[in-house]
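Suppose you are handed a protein chain with no further information: no name, no annotation, nothing but its sequence. What can you learn? This example shows the usual starting point.
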Amino acid sequence: MLVLLAFIILFHITSAALLFIATIDNAWWVGETFSADVWRICLNATNCTEIGYDFDDYATMQVVQATMILSTILCCVAFLLFLLQLFRLKQGQRFILTSIIQLLSCLCVMIAASIYTDRRQDFHAKNKQLYSQTSGGSYGYSFILAWVAFAFTFISGLMYLILRKRK
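A reasonable first move is to predict its three-dimensional structure. Written in structure tokens, the prediction is:
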């Protein structure tokens, strides 16, 4: 039982770490001379432009930022709630509340990554001065980590739904 518990805790911590890296790191869209994420666009690794009010599609980018932050917070809350329920829950009961919060975290990651996938070209095309410099490129590892975090949070949410407290 301790091995299973250690695996679940490690899996959840890995999910949270993936969410933190995907939210913070500047590698959602990368090319040879630039990198872009949900916070800024950097040209030549030194000339960084914050995504602000002058950014044409700022409202949509704020949705991506907010849902990634919310998913990270929900994942951490779910972990703390799991630890609390681990000591407070009666034997034989399920970790339903932890599962719901973790699945909400999963939903937030999916929303953020889906919006970014759908609107990525619009983000750069509407900003003509940046588009000429960021037109070529591919999805970076932070974007891929966001989708991996989606899968991890979904699996851990299902694990909590199935998991019963045992002695």
